[in-house]
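Quick bug: Phosphoribosylformylglycinamidine synthase subunit PurS output formatted oddly.
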Amino acid sequence: MGRVVVEVMPKPEILDPQGKAVVGALPRLGFTQFSGVRQGKRFELEVDGDVTPEVLAAAQQAAETLLSNPVIEDVVRVADAATDAAGTITAEGVA
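Here's what came back:
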C-alpha cells in the first residue's frame, strides 16, 4: 500500500487568522524565535499498490479540484510519502 502526501497553504495575499493566533501565543509560551506562522492543511491519500507517476498526477488533480480552494489556497506539495522525507520529524531530529 502506498501513500501520497498533499499539502495546501493559504495564498500569500490571504489573511490567516489561525496563523496570527498561533504566532501571538508562541512568545507567551517561551518560543520567541518565530516571527510568523501560516497554517495550512495536510492530506494523506492511501493507494493500493505503488505510488507511480500516474498516481501522483491524479493526486495533483484531486488536490487542485477537491482538496483545495483555488481562489484562496495553493497546492504546495504532492509527494510519495515513502520516498519524500523532507520535513519529517523523527526522534533524532528532522530527517
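Actually, after a second look the formatting is fine. Residues 2-94 form a domain with the Mth169; Chain: A , fold (CATH 3.30.1280.10). Closing.
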